[in-house]
């Protein structure tokens, strides 16, 4: 009797152990290779860097090509002899368009893989989600997308535009050339809301007039009512901060409503060449955008870059601003590592100050004070072949000013 | 004044899309009591079928005929989505009749697989479907009052589909069989109706109509693997609000949600509009759990 | 049968308690997140597995609990000033409904009370009005959608799409500290044990039998003189409270809560944990939540596309071929192994 009870108990215990074991085996399964790597890494031939983008989910549309550009830059550097005599080894993680996943994967890259730096993120939400992880683990992130500013983390380098390198000059140009009455349309999240807050101050200071401010949820598909509101309020300019799919619906339906670029000026700051492909060039021809770089940008570096990118990923692919910003991020980091002679993050940060690089968009420079970069600003017009033609530019690079400290009217914005 | 007329038109136009997306659901959910969470993915299949037809016309058919690709795409979208529905019914759904909660889970799984399949085949980025030239432009009443041809076309398409479904269900031999099976399966079977086959093609027709909805959506927005997910909750609400099991209810539900959505959106904003509509629908259903149009039945559970 | 399952659970608990000895800090932290999910899964099993209420919007309650905790952490990090997202959204003073959350204890109580309160309203209305089965599922889905749109749209008050992130400390203990992390992990494991015990006691009592009776034939229960609505409201509120606890446990470990966690997709994912583990067994929910998430973390690290196929097909397979989940499979296996004579060796091998 007691014997059989004991045996049963043993059996149950074994079963229970098996369950917990499977769970922990799965947990450790993927990490089992890590300790070996870690032990080997100081003496090994590679420098590990993390690549953290959404390869699945809604943001995959944009982020996959950014990841491609980063990998291309790494390959080029490796082909040219690597860095500090070692090859760069990318560790790719999928943020899956989910901010929590981004935070988790950032932790993994820093704590498990012990990467030298990370190139990653697209949405502000994903950047905000990983920011505490990078600060806590003393990691380094290179963020390649234009954003709303009001941030300057010591653990992030921003290679996309700050608001004063995209939005502010665009609004100024529009007020001077297209009219005073502005309709603000954006997706409902932090970038459009903050951008519009800046624009509203700017309009007040520069004699513009705010007609309306409208937000739609991400992924919204029916713009007939918004377009009707636009029609009824007769603005001179629609300043568009919609993101992703919504742009397709908006521009298609705008055209259907009989409104073309001739009837109404729109200026978009989240629509680049890649997005124009999805919207259809016919639907966007003549509409304006504001960025720092276009595929058509006329520099020798860009000719080379576009040629290589198409050779690697296909002739039907296009380059655009975030792709270029991601590409130069890798080079800027490599330059800083070379200068520092180590991948140690504090020394790399110190060395990065003032580093210059001949980028496809022109000669850029890292601003040491806020870890953004000096960039030229370009306003462009979408052409019939789906590319963007520059119609105005600052010519010189503009100093990054994420908090808009140099603008009197922006005093109330940053606390 | 023009603004309000246009807004009324927008309401009807949005309603028409809801109705088209929900019509197939009214058949699979309303008649067959299957909760097909993959309904949105049949919409996606229809949209991608349209994209493929466009490319076929672009590359293999004479340029002058390109404008007609869309006409060809409608039946193709119906057939492809219908065929997928037929397969799905045979492989999975047939095991789930009478287990509505389980059908939610299984079809949700299928929707994930179909979305990933679309990503694997067509790539993660959205694809561009060019609208045919004859649908460009608008019917101009006055400068401020223009009705886009695309939207008019969709309204006509929806009316045609509604008439088609009514004729199919109430006049054709198949429709009579379907209704017989749905009302009393055992009796229908004993009268010699092949109920398995009826189930299969009822589901196929419901899925096929979702395909047509997908075809219509290519005129308005972007087409990607997740296009169906934007519509799935809304369409279920349309069917539930209208009353499960009545086509008339679905049409009424679509009209109510569509016009309420655009009206609230016009007077408040897009997010708040959506929240208001859904909250009101939920409250309404507390008052009338069976929806706008009810079928009286004495059966319990 | 129940006794055995209880032993399995105790074994899991011991395994979880010992896990930090073997796992890296990162994996322990990850496991802590899964434990939070497991707590929620128990509550979900209570309403779905036992009572037959399929909620496709339980992410809402999880999220509300998480937000309550996050609001407290955010205020502690802000240290008397206005939280960063409020100032960039144009607020100048702390909204009144944020003020109670400055107190940690109050926030933790609210993390349970708010989900319970909302569940009470929703449950009272729907179950009183006899909205059942798929209708409830569809409504719960709409509920999730409403909350997500609302939280995204009210950026000044909720942090919008970004959600709430960037915390510094909890009850004065810095979150970056290893000891704090370990404490949080063990609090999570402890709460898992407590939740399980509570629910075990509940389902073992008569009320558990009534819940199952409601699942299998609500009208018969009604005709027998019981009021199914009252039981359903009670169990729905309880499960919302558990989800709130899970959310509150989740946030300090993961460091972020956003509307994405409340949406329809995560809500349905929660159901699959319970389905794969085995509904109506409590321990199955725990196994499912930990196993599925561990797999997800592992598989999606290397093959994001494969994960979508896997989880999608798992849904179908579980529903069609193993409706009782892993626990059901284990039961079947145990039964088969017990029938023939010498089987103990085999059982060990099979395990």
Largest pleated sheet of chain C: 2 strands, antiparallel
Biggest sheet strand order of chain C reads 1-4
Strand tally of chain C is 4
Give the quaternary arrangement of the chains.
Answer: heterotrimer
| Residue windows where pLDDT falls under 50 for at least 5 positions of chain C | 341-351
Number of strands of chain B: 2
CA distance, first residue to last residue of chain C: 18 Å
* Helical content class of chain C: over 70%
Overall average residue pLDDT of chain C:
90
Q: How much of the polypeptide of chain B forms β-strand, as a percent range?
A: under 5%
Distance between the first and last residues' Cα of chain B? 50 Å
User: Which residue ranges of chain B are poorly predicted, with pLDDT under 50 across at least 5 consecutive positions?
Assistant: none
List the main descriptive attributes of the protein structure presented here:
heterotrimer; A: 415 residues; alpha/beta; Rossmann fold; 2 domains; seven-stranded mixed sheet; five-stranded parallel sheet; 45% helix; disordered N terminus; B: 301 residues; mainly alpha; two-stranded antiparallel sheet; 11 helices; ABC_transp_permease (chain B); amino-acid transport (chain B); transmembrane helix (chain B); ABC_UrtB_bac (chain B)
Element layout with pairings:
The complex is a heterotrimer of chains A (415), B (301) and C (351).
Chain A: H1 2-29, H2 33-40, E1 46-53, H3 60-79, E2 87-94, H4 99-112, E3 118-120, H5 124-136, E4 141-143, E5 156-158, H6 167-177, E6 181-187, H7 190-206, E7 209-216, H8 224-233, E8 237-241, H9 245-256, E9 265-268, H10 273-279, H11 281-284, E10 288-291, H12 300-313, H13 321-340, H14 345-352, E11 356-359, E12 362-367, E13 372-374, E14 378-382, E15 388-393
Parallel strand pairs in A: 1-2, 1-3, 3-4, 4-5, 6-7, 6-8, 8-9, 9-10
Antiparallel strand pairs in A: 10-14, 11-12, 12-13, 14-15
Chain B: H1 2-31, H2 39-60, H3 69-91, H4 100-122, E1 138-142, E2 145-148, H5 149-170, H6 173-183, H7 185-190, H8 195-217, H9 229-242, H10 247-267, H11 270-287
Chain C: H1 2-22, H2 25-50, H3 59-78, H4 84-88, H5 104-128, H6 133-153, H7 155-158, E1 164-165, E2 169-170, E3 173-174, H8 178-204, H9 206-216, H10 218-223, H11 228-254, E4 256-257, H12 264-277, H13 283-302, H14 304-321, H15 325-338, H16 344-350
Antiparallel strand pairs in C: 1-4, 2-3
